[in-house]
Amino acid sequence: MEIRNIRESEINLFIEVLLEGAKWIAANKKRMWDESDLHAQSLMDGLTINNFFAAFIDGEIAGVMILQDEDSFFWPEDPEGEALYLHKLCIKRKYAKTGLSGSMIRYARNLAEVSRKKFLKLDCAADRAALRQFYEQHGFTLVEERLVMEMYPTAFYQLEIKSYAKA
Questions:
Q1: pLDDT digits (tens, 9 = 90+) for 64-98
Q2: What does the DSSP 8-state code read for residue 92?
Q3: Listed residue (2, 125, 129) closest to 57, CA to CA
Q4: What's the CA gap between 111 and 60, in Å, rounded?
Q5: Residue 53 in 3-state DSSP?
Q6: pTM of full prediction above 0.85
Q7: Adjacency order of strands within the sheet including 2-5
Q8: Is 80 exposed, middle or buried (0-12, 13-18, 19+ CB in 10 A)?
Q9: Contact indicator for 100, 85 with CB cutoff of 8 Å
């Protein structure tokens, strides 16, 4: 397994993983990502290709995530440079329940540590108990819950990076 930044030529593969995840969630009568927002122009808005990461198993893209150095939309009060922000973690169904998502979180945590961040942060739907439990099992603690855009109940989590949290 290899986790790395994607290349520009791999953006469509990245999007395919997200689309598969969105369709699987919708098939389970839940909705998380609007498929119409899962295209390069929308995903790249305010980001660069360096924010996009993928896990590859035997050369096949198996999971994806976006990592950002700032997130003023969801975390407007955060001091600049304090955290690394995790978005759109998604695993191909073929690789579900293999521990890949945990490996990707560890990769993000390690990247936060070498970047001298105090926290790895994320937000998720507040009404997704299993998703919230997953993040909590991986060391994230709840910071707050609030309504985003006056319509989306959202839970905000952070994982303290021990090396720098007290700095």
A1: 999 999 999 999 999 999 999 999 999 999 999 99
A2: -
A3: 2
A4: 22
A5: strand
A6: yes
A7: 2-5, 52-57, 60-68, 83-91, 119-125, 152-160, 141-148
A8: exposed
A9: no
